[in-house]
Predict the structure of NADP-dependent malic enzyme.
Amino acid sequence: MGLDEDALEYHRIDPPGKIEISTTKPTNTQRDLSLAYSPGVAAPCTEIDENPDDAYTYTAKGNLVGVVSNGSAVLGLGDIGAQASKPVMEGKGVLFKRFADIDVFDIELDEADPDKIVEAVKMMEPTFGGVNLEDIKAPECFTVEERLREEIDIPVFHDDQHGTAIISGAALLNAADIAGKDLEDLEIAFSGAGASAIATARFYVSLGCKKENITMCDSSGIITEERAKRGDVNEYKQQFARDVPEGDLEDAMEGADVFVGLSIGGIVSQEMIQSMASDPIVFAMANPDPEIGYEEAKDARDDTVIMATGRSDYPNQVNNVLGFPFIFRGALDVRATEINEEMKVACAEALSELARQDVPDAVVKAYGDEPIQYGPDYIIPKPVDPRVLFRVAPSIAEAAMESGAARTEIDLDEYEEELEARLGKSREMMRVVLNKAKSDPKTVALAEGENEKMIRAAYQIQEQGIALPVLIGDESDIRQTAANLGLDFDPQVADPSVGDYEDYADRLHELRSRKGITRSEAGELIERDSNYFGSVMVEQGDADALLSGLSHHYPSALRPPLQVIGTDEDVDYAAGVYLLTFKNRVIFVADATVNQDPDEEVLAEVTKQTGKLARRFNVEPRAALLSYSNFGSVDNEGTRKPRNAARMLQNDPEVDFPVDGEMQADTAVVEDILEGTYGFSDLEEPANVLVFPNLESGNIGYKLLQRLGGADAIGPMLVGMDEPVHVLQRGDEVKDIVNLAGVAVVDAQQE
């Protein structure tokens, strides 16, 4: 099937459309229903009647946006009317929810009169925390937005005008930086004089461009003062009328530094690009066909053409989804009365700055694993970059507070943590650990230090103040790679091939001489194997923790630290633990990586160590030792191991958290089963530490929970070692390395 057929099937599949309403509170019992509706609902109604601002406390208003359209200017489709535009408005709601966790009602008004549209929206003001106007044709859209901004007390934003303006404005800031040009000196030619073009030109002036340097063309040519005098252009176009001779787009582009296309495809030739100033900036944003094709524009010149389009299949897509979800997120969270110019500028500047930073692996993978680095082919962040939420929304909130648009003040540091939580429980849990790490950073040795991911992780670890990273490897290679990646940092490197590390070789020989390692072999291992080097480095106290395993099989990466560092004084066995996060709960799963067939003593030890790990995440452990048997319902050697381990732990005075078993997995995690059928259990609430009976079941269990249960996984985290060591999985992303570095620092703090 083609794209159209696929899209029709996508929208048709039951239930039709793309959105639904879901409840956020329990509705399982009669009492739940009486609280949700009659008679309990009268209490919040009374409170809101006495204080209207309490609507933000007792209802969803503070997270609800109305997407309002009459379908008179749908991108690429034109005036298709209110009902036909509904799939677009539903799609807008999907983007609001996906990228910023904002709920949406789409409102399609079968009305062309701008005054009546204004009145309709005004009547709905009590429902919403903000209004996003969409696909209303010019010039009516100007009237609707201007009046609503004046007449209602919640943020109003016309995305067709300001979205493109803000995102292309962010691109312009970086394009000018790369081209070495000042905004105030830029000569800018516009193709198109509709709502988006006029708003974009206005916004460029807010960023620092000069209005007198903007030449705007409509279908009749350059908008001149002479045309304005003749009444040939409307009042909105007149503000960009220039005192220049009349001409066409070709005349406007000659000598221009910047071309901004918001018109129709295929109207710009290579000769027109060649007539522009040196290192031209070309934003051909007509969709689906740009004013000039990407390759065509690039091939027109020998110098650098910095090119952006509205298409996702070329670099530098000007995509409004980089703006509106995050702008509204910040505005809603400070209960802003408007979205003003200061907030729009803050958005563009935040996006511009983000594009200059290292790009997460997940974003690179989403775009075909091709390198993404600040430069002519990367001047604005990618829409799937999760960091946009954490950069833009706080910038919007801060600008709203500073400009007087906010009705409530928020702590921006705490706000970023709240935003992290909106993207998932795993981010919330890691924030706890990373904050602890930042309070007292430790030195973390990174084996395989020449690996690009390790270098990027070291940069982020150092930049965020999580730890003091030391990259183990060839210093010249590491520094060259860091420079090639555009990372602005001076890495600390331990280079085994040039440093004086004879004492490391002596120590490794001392530890392993009775295991067949000669002094010569020890020297070779120190020089050539960064896992052994890093293990001795930590064992000797020259680093506080070690991360390894990025390009090795787990057992081979684990072997050196086990041989050199070993387990804790009171511990005989290490174990691998995953933290799995779901929407409303977290679970620690052990052992998923180390012990193949543990006996009862190993199971007990693993449980104790996992309980300690849970507390580093501020989680009070409740441990269940799992089996296919419930409390003796099956009695054999396999079921007796977790049963005996549970008894050992219950009788251990050092264990100060509830433990029980053996039990089946659903018994451990389903409250009704635990309290109903097995009310005698020592667990009064569902378990959050699940100890599997062997490595096979543990590994299978965590992967099923991750893939089918939708859990996010953090780990594996190694517990039970004498010094903090964590072994990465092959193919882990940079964020995984950074997260485990945070865990390692907190481990070291405990030491």
Observations:
- Residues 432-565 form a domain with the Rossmann fold fold (CATH 3.40.50.10950).
- The first helix runs from residue 3 to 12.
- The first strand starts at residue 64 and ends at 69.
